[in-house]
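Q: Given only this backbone (238 positions), what sequence would you predict?
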């Protein structure tokens, strides 16, 4: 398949490398090089979400090609007025082109629109899921929590560790164990610690000890842990 990727950032570079390794002919162009699109079967837009409509409108509509985007929160409406449109959003992080390309192979993709989008995912060995337009923003919010908010949480851990004279690396194995437990047993069963036990004395001691600037984050997270523990107890009583 001849594919033109528009947008040479991390996403575009990752997709270009992954698609080439899957056997496709891929051209990578910047958003201001639309004259180089040529006769591609698929034009894949990896530009910032807010630029999708502008870039799509700058391309001449044609039934001989599909225009697709990789934005998780956007529907196909942003690709009007093209007659053949698709979207394929990968549930992976793309920190560098090389690591991103490795992750795109075999990833899970939210796919909609023209069947060519699913064919591309198949060529990458990926798994397809379907998300309705009504759930698109919620789907993407879930992805942001699963990845971006997890990174923000690790920033909180790093700050607390440094305040105690330690390093983030000292606590990463504990985080890895907790995620492994979530995968094996689910969040309810994996929850341990003072919130799970209802140990308010320990939580009060934590709040006294941690830096003031980090207390609001801790309180928000311990509240979520209390709610998770309560749901577990409710399910046990049912």
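A: Predicted residues:
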């Amino acid at each position: 398949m001849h594919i033109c990727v528009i947008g040479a950032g991390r996403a575009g570079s990752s997709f270009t490398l992954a698609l080439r390794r899957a056997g496709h002919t891929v051209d990578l162009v910047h958003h201001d090089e639309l004259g180089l699109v040529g006769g591609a079967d698929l034009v894949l837009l990896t530009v910032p979400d807010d630029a999708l409509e502008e870039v799509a409108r700058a391309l001449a509509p044609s039934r001989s090609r599909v225009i697709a985007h990789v934005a998780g929160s956007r529907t196909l409406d942003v690709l009007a007025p093209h007659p053949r449109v698709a979207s394929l959003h990968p549930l992976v992080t793309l920190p560098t082109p090389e690591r991103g390309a490795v992750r795109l192979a075999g990833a899970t993709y939210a796919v909609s629109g023209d069947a060519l989008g699913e064919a591309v995912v198949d060529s990458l060995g990926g798994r397809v899921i379907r998300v309705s337009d009504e759930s698109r923003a919620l789907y993407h919010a879930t992805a942001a929590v699963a990845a971006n908010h997890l990174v923000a949480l690790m920033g909180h851990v790093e700050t607390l560790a440094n305040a105690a004279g330690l390093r983030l690396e000292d606590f990463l194995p504990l985080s890895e164990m907790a995620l492994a437990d979530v995968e094996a047993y689910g969040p309810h069963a994996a929850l341990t610690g003072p919130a799970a036990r209802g140990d308010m004395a320990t939580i009060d001691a934590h709040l006294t000890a941690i830096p003031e600037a980090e207390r609001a984050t801790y309180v928000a997270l311990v509240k979520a842990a209390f709610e998770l523990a309560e749901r577990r107890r409710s399910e046990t009583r049912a």
